[in-house]
Design goal:
By secondary structure, the chain is mainly β. Helices cover about 10% and strands about 35% of the residues. It has three domains: about 40 residues; about 500 residues, 7 Propeller (Methylamine Dehydrogenase, Chain H); about 130 residues, Beta Barrel (OB fold (Dihydrolipoamide Acetyltransferase, E2P)). The longest helix is centred in the first third of the chain and has 39 residues. The N terminus and C terminus are likely disordered.
Length: about 700
Amino acid sequence: MKKRYFGEMTWLMLVVCAAMSYSAVLDFQLQRQSTQTMVIAEWSQHARDPMNTGYSTYSVTFPWRWKWQWNGSNATGGEASGKTTLPRNVQPVTGGGRVYVARGGSGITALNEETGAVLWTQNPGGSINSTVAYDHETQSLFAMSSNGYLYKLNPANGATLGSYNIGGTSTLPLPPCVIAGRVFIAMGNTVAAVDKNTMTALWTYNAGSAAHTPPAYSPSRDCVVVCTADLYVHAVNNSNGTRKWRVKPSVHTAGTPYEYARGWPVIAERHGLVLVRMRIDWDLMWVNPNPFGDPNNATIRSRLVASPQQQCHFALSLDDGSVPFVCNNGQGGYGDGGYMPIGSMPVVKTFPNGDEVVYNMIRGENRYDSRWDSHFGEMVLDSTTVSGLLPGYVRWIRHGNTSGEDAYCLTDEQPFVSMAGDHLFGNHWLVTYALQVGNRSASYGTFANKIDTTNLSWFIVSQGACGPCTFSSTHYCAQSLNEDPSCGRNYAGGFYVCYNTGVLHDRYWTEYGCVTVSNNKIIVRDTTGAIFCLESGNPLGMGEDAPWVEEIRMASEEPADAARIVSGYEGPAVVEAADAAQYIGREKSVEGTLRYVFNNGKSILLGFAYPHQGYFKAQIEKRHWDRFGAALGTGMGRDRAGLYREGQSIRVRGMITHYQGDPVIYVSEPSQITHIEHFAWRPVSSPAAGKSLHDLTVTLPVTR
């Protein structure tokens, strides 16, 4: 009996111990899951996660209210003192109660996540042109510099804890990709996996060509994907750094404008795909027939198959790099007149039922010309998610200022897309769209019967005083958001950063904007480099901790942007086009030879360089064309203006201001332009290279 009792007690004790052990294991697992949930809730690295999905699983409850801002406006809505631009593609990330912003040559600034107050600014070396990454595992901050060093920083104060030199340099945005135990980086010809603790290489891979994108990581295939300057896409085994595959999906020859630069690979994990996007030539947008002129998936697919040079979105198998289908999408971005930079990367969303789809700007319409055909859209990756659709087919999404409007976006003004739950964001250079996606059932998604959306609060760079609202510390205007200063473009109501500051987006042009969602906050980087934060709440009431006085004080301590300060020296009355940027804000006569003339239907651009991006130009807006008479020539396209042709040398007089960050004079009267001489200069097409060359022959001056 005693033996039986002892045995029963022993068994009972074993059961209790086992239960306690199981409870401890379960508790640990729950803690680990809780920690993982905390990590998942944060946008702590570029495009949110190692797969670069650009998708947050949860959204911030609507309505929203203004919480704080940095590098935006002062207490009365004017331009903040010391305002600066940010490098292209930089996204604000969070971790440890802070928001981290990469600032190029100024290094990194850390903000208090609750108040927006500046905590520290440090530059570990070189220029930090890439989004930084906060690592919850080591509670460290990782930053990739243009000098080729990966820096490990103390997020509390920005102190350098360690570094690794990859051996190459680049000014491109190439942010680090963080997973458990290691950080992936790519720069120069090298891709590397770096141990987080020792800051030594676990392996390196020689891509044979310069990295043009940061890495993306696929957990299911345990491989890293990067794109290089030679237009190849590489998959690298994470186990040992060996090549898994290397393919070139495009028919184009590498070299500007054909490049992956300023984009990033995106992993669609459930489908075993990596999605990449490349930049192609602006001139391909004008090919007839326009592949997207008939907004029908079957037609778009057949035209893209027949014209592979139009393909710039690719889906590749993570297993072998093969291309299983053609993506029914085309080029677009913040472009104008001969220049089309790479646009938004795809966003991959996974639904609770396991469906995985892609969101991005898509094309398809027949209105005016081939630039007037972009919409928000969804792309399916298989033939089962939506009945009747093939992999790579797209679905159109409606948006507009009101529920009854079916609007479009210009293809050379395509927004950058991100997503949180069913909230879809699109950062245009002036306004940020915020939409709640509605019914996605199979009966919706055609061009004629689009997936519907509900407007949330939209955001604008600067609200015009011409609009319905006076300035408020809530930064909210329920009636409408209105282009500053003209009210030429008007949008649904929402929040503004600045008020009555004019064309701020042109003065601080950065070619990029994004919305991130982290820790129940919406943190936005607009195209001028402003960072602002919204939270759930009454839009007519601000958060109690908005640090207006402190924010203004800290902003005034930032070094002034010397490039935007006009010195007391007026300079010569006539300046060369190449020197015009030195005289922003001055009345000058600028002279040079026209290299690119383009009429986009809204303005005639007189470019003094080809490509014109980054150089002085003059603009004659449509509202002034009649003052020049019929001889002006207003046919749309390149070199159609009769009075001003490529090859002519002219002198333009007026106030030098900004257009997309470049110096410009807006011309409203013919007397502002004087012809100096005429050159018989013409572009010569080179089909083999897909580029343009230019012959220059001088003829006698033409008297006008």
